[in-house]
Amino acid sequence: MSGGTSVGVRLASHFATVEQQKHAAVLGMWAWLLTELLLFAGLFLTALILRLTHPEAVQAAARHLKFWIGAVNTVVLIGSSLTMSGAIQLSRLGWQRGMVRFMLATAALGTLFLALKGYEYYADYHEHMMPFLSDRPYALTDSPPSRLFVNLYYVATGLHGLHLLTGIAILLAMTRQASRPGFLAAHQNRIEIFGLYWHFIDLIWIVAFPTLYVLNR
Amino acid sequence: MFGTSEERRILWRHMREPVLTACALLIMLGVNVALGATLPFPHVWIVELIVAGLMVATILAFSMEVRREPPLVRLFACIGFVWVAILFAMTLVDYLSRR
Amino acid sequence: MTSGTITDGPALRDPHTPDSRIGHGPDYLHAEHTLRSWFFTTDHKRIALLYLASITAFFVIGAVTAGLVRLALVVPDGQVFTNDTYNKLFTIHGVVMVWFFLIPSIPATFGNFLIPLMIGARDLAFPKLNLASWYVFMTGAFFTLVSVVLGGVDTGWTFYTPLSTAFSNTWVVPALIGVTIVGFSSILTGLNFVVTIHTMRAPGMTWFRLPIFVWTHYATSLIFLLATPVITVALVLLIAERAFHIGVFDPAYGGDPVLFQHLFWFYSHPAVYIMVLPGMGVISEIVPAFAQKKLFGYRFVAYAAIGLASVTFFVWGHHMFVNGQSDLASVAFSVLSFAVAVPSAVKVYNWTATIHKGSLKLDTPMLYAMGYIGLFVLGGLTGLYLATLAINQHVHATYFVVAHFHYIMVGGTVLAFLGGLHFWWPKFTGRMYIEAWGRISAVLIFIGFNVTFFPQFILGYLGMPRRYHVYPAEFQFLNILSSAGSTILAVGYIFPMIYLVYAIWFGKRAPANPWDARGLEWTVASPPPAHNFLTEPQAPKVPYDYPIQARETGRQHS
User: Fold this and answer.
1) In the predicted model, is pLDDT for residue A3 greater than 60?
2) One GO term of the cellular component aspect (chain A) (predicted)?
3) ipTM, interface predicted TM-score of the complex
4) What's the confidence (pLDDT) of residue C2?
5) For a disulfide at C296, which of A212, C178, C545, C550, Cβ 3.0-4.6 Å?
């Protein structure tokens, strides 16, 4: 572990300097995150409109969500952000092995989140809280608008889960690359760029958790 | 994993900020969860919203290191929220004034 | 540097070739010849041509369906097609023209080809992403074509609920998937442009030395990034609605169809500027070149592009005046819509001021540009009528609206596209087209366009609703006039497809700068070398440094 490997970025042929290349990569990821933010904003707006038009139904539906699983999952994601930051810090130091371990820990925490989410869906299914399933009766039949909020909850958490799943897949692929010697000398900034994406998925959940679980109670 | 005390010191120097960030986030989350679980007063959602906003700001500024980025990246980090505000504000003009 | 010596036919004024930068290596078209070298290229110029070929194919589909719609409207009793077929025809026309031609038209082709050349870069910032965006585009196109082949869609291009969710029995879901996927291709293109313009400019190429074409593409890219995801999520909700009946837009469960319209128009109104702004960039290049005069009010034109891209996000509700949004919202959206006129007018006045006392050459690109300015003014002014609440009540969803937006989309974007195509065709292919044919087509298109769409203003004002093919017999004359105009328009479209392609093999070789135009793209050979610049590009001290300098009062020192 003593002493790191050399750290840097290999210049691609169409850039003039490494600085330019790194700047372009950071800016590119931020531009992508802009679109991600607006994507989820559409869903949060829909949730807000549902809350405004059907306050009681939305509250009834929100009380059926698994508040504590959501809270634990938020803790899990905050933890995964911490390990991702750790991977970034170690990549800057050139401590490749430690970095890889932090990356694996991040992927594990992401998977734990998905597992808990899956259990939550399973419990919802059990409690007849899946109104979009046409062949399964819905628990809150006396409140038709509550279906809308519950369905929106599945769209929003499903889309977030898809982003997390994609993130885990990319992270594992990158971990494989990053464990090879010479990775940090050529592609250190990939870790930082991916870190931005990972933190942003965390950020989206930080907004989604209160929007869906907390504010409507 | 990190053998010498020298390495541990370097590690802590670099990990202090992420660890403190995570702690701050957990504390704020604790506040929100407590408020959501107990619902102590009628308009508690205002406080919850503010706390969630602070958490977002913390992630942006510290986890995503916007603080250390050049002005252009900071602008990009903000502009999305400005546009979200446009989307919400103009749509709410409709919904809040409907009869 | 004076101009005007005609040496080699009317198109080849002063073939001024700065030979220091013209290389001896193979140009980008001849660097490699395999099919693989095209389909897996990361060269922005080749990707631009991939896009050009694809969108031309979609233009043909969109134009043929438009022709069939016009055919159906020749008779008032709706006997040409069944109601279903008619609905599907105008839907395919709208979906294909909006998402598969107009939106990618100028950015994905000219923008892709020219932005790196204009700013002095070797490529876009993310070449692989650029290629990926084309594949994403084709994937979306595949789904949409599948829906057409299976039997089409009848919802109109707007996919309004509850028609699209509860009542339509057509292939809505594949079409929705196609449009959703195509959105990602726009996002990737916009992302690439934003990053490229920020980070890849040649040394000395400051923001106020950039061509207006680059400014307008920057503004367009911001709209791509900020607006497209919102329609993506709206369409995802629609797909979920059709597949699982989630009910968010379904009044039966207490959902609100108007919410879909809010999300839809948050994208689709700014999308008008995705279509128009790049066209404005093209016109801002053509007009100074053919007036041989510095662009009047450069900074104002640049700021107006950013202004349009921002203001456009505050006006979407003017599509929804009669659709159930609140009166207060309608008033707010109406007032804000008038603000759009300001930056639009800034642009038009600056182009006309550039033409004023210029040394005019009415070559093909300039004919298109002048047609653009006139038609854009008409389209823009009728937009003000529509933004007025009281008039909108009268002409909402009539042919007045159809005429208005065709003046902007066809009179604006398509004319700018064709103008740009003729302007940069020598740069793309290294060959000159036959100038006489170009001028004939430009005039035909201008006449055909006006004969087609001007009667529709009158029809709409008289009360003919859009999207119906059965109409009162007294509207027949104007409808026949419109359909007759569309045949002239069709001829005007077919000619360029022939002589431009002909020119690729048989045209005269083009010099590096056939129009004596300014801008870095004219300092490289035609067609450009594979890596754009053989020596370090020298940014001009002043943009649009043409021989005739505009006299602008006030303190304007750029």
Assistant:
1) no
2) plasma membrane
3) 0.94
4) 38
5) C550
C-alpha radius of gyration, chain A, whole number: 21
Q: What's the pLDDT tens digit per position in C306-349?
A: 999 999 999 999 999 999 899 999 999 999 999 999 999 999 99
To the nearest whole Å, the CA of A1 is away from the closest chain C CA by 35
Residues ≥6 apart with Cβ < 8 Å to C551 = none
Q: How far is residue C102's CA from residue C506's CA, in Å, rounded to a whole number?
A: 29
A141 domain residue, yes or no: yes
Residues of chain B contacting C329 with CB distance shorter than 8 Å: 90, 93-94, 97
Tell me: the pLDDT tens digits for C118-147? 999 999 999 999 999 999 999 999 999 999
Q: Is C260 touching B (CB cutoff 8 A)?
A: no
Report which DSSP code applies to C295: P
| Main-chain dihedrals φ then ψ at residue C432, nearest 5 degrees | -95, 140
Q: What are C376's two structure tokens?
A: 């854009």
CA gap A186, A171 in Å, rounded? 17
State the distance between the two ends of chain C, measured CA to CA, in whole angstroms. 20
Distance CA A91, CA C513 (A): 49
Contact check, Cβ <8 Å, A31/C236 = no
**Average pLDDT in chain C:** 92
Cβ contact C244–A132 (<8 Å): yes
Pick from A4, A29, A13, A2: nearest CA to A189: A29
Q: Which domains, ranges and CATH numbers included, belong to chain C?
A: 19-285+294-523 (1.20.210.10)
How large is the average pLDDT for residues B18-40? Answer: 95
Integer Cα distance of C444 and C457 in angstroms:
20
Give exposure, A61-97, as e/b (b: 16+ Cβ within 10 Å): bbebbbbeebbbbbbbbbbbbbbbbbbbbbbbbbbbe
Q: Is residue A18 part of a domain?
A: no
Beta strand spans in C349-452 (E): 431-432
Domain containing residue A197: CATH number: 1.20.120.80
Tell me if A174 sits within 8 A of A103, measured CB to CB: yes
Q: Does residue A22 belong to any structural domain of this protein?
A: no
Cβ contact C105:C275 at 8 Å: yes
- Positions of chain C with pLDDT under 50: 1-23, 555-558
| A39–B contact, CB cutoff 8 A | no
CB C44 within 8 A of CB C123: yes
A3 lies in some domain: no
- Structure pTM? 0.94
- CB contact (8 A) between residue B94 and residue C314: no
Decide: C189 and C108 in contact? Cβ < 8 Å.
yes
Of A59, A104, A114, A61, whose CA–CA distance to A84 is shortest? A104
Write out the residues of chain C at the interface with chain A, using a CB-CB cutoff of 8 A. Answer: 121-123, 125-127, 129, 187, 190-192, 194-196, 198-200, 225-230, 232-234, 236-237, 240, 244-248, 252-256, 259, 263
- Return the ∠ at Cα C356 (arms to C351 and C360), rounded to 5°: 95
Residue of C nearest to B93 (CA): C329
* CA atoms of C524 and C379, how far apart (whole Å): 37
CA distance C467 to C86: 8
State the helix-helix crossing angle for A96-126 and A144-178, rounded to 10 degrees.
Answer: 160
**Dihedral of the alpha carbons of A139, A144, A146, A150, in degrees to the nearest 10:** 70
Q: Nearest residue of B to residue A24 by CA position? A: B73
Q: Select the residue from C126, C246, C260, C263 to test the A interface by mutation, using most A Cβ atoms within 10 A.
A: C246
Amino acid at C35: L
Range of the domain at A125: 30-214
Nearest to C328 among B72, B86, B97 (CB): B97
Neighbouring chains of B at 3+ CB pairs under 8 Å are: A, C
Q: Can you read off the two tokens belonging to residue A149?
A: 């909020």
